[in-house]
């Protein structure tokens, strides 16, 4: 049996994470009992205090164990933090040594969505990959530059540390964990009970690209604005570098440092974001959208779009354009 401990930080957290995890592991245990086996998981809530009031005093969560008490943990789960994430990190900084201690004792650690901020503050993610909600990816990169933020991924699993992407993608991570520690058949059963898509690994189609601009490099800000205003044109890296009066090599280095994207990647993502919005509304064909975003080669456009979004332009239009869907 594996002991699953969900940490209840102080402040506002995702109650859906807590209830959802409990519900899923309970269904796994029911399946084991029906098969005449002992339950596979034991579920418990842990924290610094017995009761946490949250959600504008609407809900309270009661822990079974205090972190000062002795209990067994095989997997420690940090739920998503809501509200002011950095304030929540400050309030809960006293949990950091305890989380590190659990990992040193052999427990695996899992963060869900923005719970990655609290996990990263322990230093355990340094040098590792991490997923979180794509909305907060730039803030995460700024705060934790030594962590490899993979904002297109729905989950990561490295060295006994797991992280999940945006919001309800935590369900896919829990499903992955269940398959890893039980059987494929159990994972399939749980996927069917909760209507989950197995094997989903990317959140690319959900990302709304907003180039990172909270840096202090005025030349790069000017370059970003130039790229965004010229999305309908085919511009070169040399042209942009000249526009901001920088040598190409120096420009490319500074652009990557400031935005976490290469110049070429940034241009592609700006064009694809415009294309996504056009495909979501109206009745424009894929070819019309291609021309309006500066592409002339349909194969090149499709390849870039699929690389960034994870699906073809036609598939995206069929999925997200209501006029096409009906």
SSE blueprint:
Layout: E1 2-7, H1 15-34, E2 41-47, E3 51-54, E4 59-62, E5 65-66, E6 75-78, H2 85-91, H3 96-104, E7 108-111, H4 115-120, E8 129-130, H5 137-143, E9 148-149, E10 155-158, E11 161-164, H6 170-181, H7 184-193, H8 218-229, H9 237-243, H10 248-259, H11 263-280, H12 286-292, H13 298-309, H14 313-320, H15 322-325
Parallel strand pairs: 1-2, 1-6, 2-5, 6-7, 7-11, 8-9
Antiparallel strand pairs: 3-4, 10-11
Helix pairs in contact: 1-6, 6-7, 11-14
CATH topology of the largest domain: Rossmann fold
Per the principal axes of the C-alpha atoms, what is the gross shape?
globular
Q: How would you characterize the largest beta sheet?
A: 7 strands, mixed
State the end-to-end distance. 49 Å
* Main CATH class of the largest domain: Alpha Beta
The CATH homologous superfamily of the largest domain corresponds to: Class I glutamine amidotransferase (GATase) domain
The helicity comes to: 40-55%
Radius of gyration: 23 Å
Reported CATH architecture of the largest domain:
3-Layer(aba) Sandwich
Number of strands: 11
> What is the H/E string?
EHEEEEEHHEHEHEEEHHHHHHHHHH
Structure characterization notes:
The chain is α/β, with parallel strands linked by helices and about 325 residues long. It folds into 2 domains: about 1-205, Class I glutamine amidotransferase (GATase) domain (Rossmann fold), CATH 3.40.50.880; about 220-325, Arc Repressor Mutant, subunit A. Helices cover about 45% and strands about 15% of the residues. The chain is built from 15 helices and 11 strands. The chain has helices at about 15-35, 85-90, 95-105, 115-120, 135-145, 170-180, 185-195, 220-230, 235-245, 250-260, 265-280, 285-290, 300-310, 315-320, 320-325; strands at about 1-5, 40-45, 50-55, 60, 65, 75-80, 110, 130, 150, 155-160, 160-165. It has a 7-stranded mixed sheet, sandwiched between helices. Strands 3-4 form a two-stranded antiparallel sheet. A two-stranded parallel sheet has the order 8-9. The longest helix is centred in the first third of the chain and has 20 residues, at about 15-35. The chain is globular and about 65 Å long. It starts with a strand and ends with a helix.
């Amino acid at each position: 049996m594996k002991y699953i401990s969900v940490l209840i930080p102080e402040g506002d957290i995702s109650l859906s994470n807590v209830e959802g995890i409990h519900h899923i592991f309970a269904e796994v245990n029911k399946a084991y009992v029906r098969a005449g086996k002992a339950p596979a998981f034991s579920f418990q809530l842990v924290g610094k205090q017995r009761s946490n009031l949250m959600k504008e005093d609407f809900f309270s969560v009661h822990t079974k164990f205090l972190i000062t008490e002795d209990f067994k943990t095989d997997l420690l789960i940090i739920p998503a933090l809501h509200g002011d994430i950095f304030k929540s990190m400050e309030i809960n900084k006293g949990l950091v040594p305890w989380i590190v201690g659990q990992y040193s004792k052999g427990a695996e650690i899992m963060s869900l969505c923005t719970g990655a901020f609290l996990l990263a503050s322990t230093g355990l993610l340094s040098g590792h990959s991490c997923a979180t909600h794509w909305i907060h990816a730039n803030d995460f990169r700024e705060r934790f530059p030594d962590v490899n933020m993979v904002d297109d991924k729905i989950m990561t699993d490295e060295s006994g540390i797991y992280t999940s992407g945006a919001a309800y993608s935590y369900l896919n991570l829990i499903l992955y964990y269940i398959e890893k520690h039980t059987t494929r058949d159990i994972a399939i059963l749980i996927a069917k009970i909760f209507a989950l898509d197995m094997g989903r690994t990317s959140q690319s189609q959900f990302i709304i690209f907003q180039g990172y601009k909270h840096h202090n490099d005025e030349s790069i800000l000017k370059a970003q604005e130039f790229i965004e205003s010229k999305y309908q044109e085919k511009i070169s890296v040399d042209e942009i570098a000249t526009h901001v009066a920088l040598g190409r090599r120096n420009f490319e280095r500074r652009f990557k440092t400031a935005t976490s994207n290469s110049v070429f990647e940034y241009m592609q993502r700006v064009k694809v974001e415009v294309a996504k919005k056009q495909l979501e509304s109206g009745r424009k064909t894929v070819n019309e959208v291609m021309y309006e975003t500066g592409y002339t080669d349909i194969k090149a456009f499709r390849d870039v779009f699929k690389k960034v979004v994870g699906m073809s332009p036609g598939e995206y239009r069929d999925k997200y354009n209501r006029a096409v869907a009906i």
